[in-house]
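Q&A log
Question type: sequence-to-structure
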Amino acid sequence: MSKAIEDLRAKLEERRQVRQLPEGLESARNEVVRCLRENDRRPLDCWREVEAFKEEVRRLEKGWVDKVVS
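Response status: OK
Response body:
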């Protein structure tokens, strides 16, 4: 039983690897967080930052799809 637990723990550790976010996406994410903190009573004022973040995600998704399809 102990061996099975250790094997499972090892598999989970392998999956826990965090990938570095691309600079554009990280920057856009930070802008959304900054805006939400500055406008904590009015989060709807952050729609520009949210749209920029969505655009970065779309760009990365398109790149990933293009890589998979090619």
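Response note: The mean pLDDT is 86.
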